[in-house]
Design brief:
By secondary structure, this protein is of the alpha/beta class. The protein has one domain: Rossmann fold, CATH 3.40.50. The chain has ten helices and seven strands. A five-stranded parallel sheet has the order 5-4-3-6-7, with helices on both faces. Strands 1-2 form a two-stranded antiparallel sheet. The radius of gyration is 20 Å and the shape is globular. It starts with a helix and ends in a 9-residue tail after the last strand.
Length: about 250
Amino acid sequence: MTSTIIILLCFLVATSVAYYPEDQIHLLMPHSGSAGRKHSSLDCLSWRLAIETNNIQNWIQVPLACEAYVGHYMLGEQYRKDCYLVASEAYEYAKGLNISKDGKDVWVFDIDETTLSNIPYYARDTVRFGAIPYNSTAFNLWVDEAVAPPIPASLKLYKGLVELGFKIVFITGTHDTHTKPRAENLKNAGYTTWEKLILKGVGDGHDYKASKRKELEEAGYRIRGNMGDQWSDLLGTNPGDRVFKLPDPMYYIA
């Protein structure tokens, strides 16, 4: 009887490890999204709400007290649900638009934490979901690996937008020295076609994304939708007809 129980337990463990949900971004932690919510006087759920609504600005890194909370949220079911809700609202909005046949109706996407997920990188012990200071050298090496998985909700939205007739424009803060791996990563992740892939050049300033959107509109494009994970992706001039923000409590870009 004992040996039978042991065999059954081993089977259950092996099955749980081998099972991966279709929309998984990274191996899930065996905890709920609210794990580690409250530490001393800091309520991490309230902190996350405040940063997502842009009420807390210019923060440098995730509070150490909230490292576990952010990790469980990003690896758990709630993050995926939140992304799907945003993508679903974006698609419902897009379906109601009249798309012209001149190929000038575009949808702007950011890349990091918008179309591609860097969770495998941020889950590393040397990064700890943003609780360790940002290391640009290490992150750029990760970018050059070109292995970031797609965010499932965004990929589904992307495919729906292409079917509706939108042209896709990617605008990323990644420097243009990484153009080749970024393009390779996007294609391998399922983002197989786009109108423009715009990366940051040496002379581009703080308002880089706003200026690139302005250039698009001056070239005759109509930005019907704009999606990013940072408020800096969405605010400023020429934001487009409507913006959609995905959650990202791991870092802040001014």
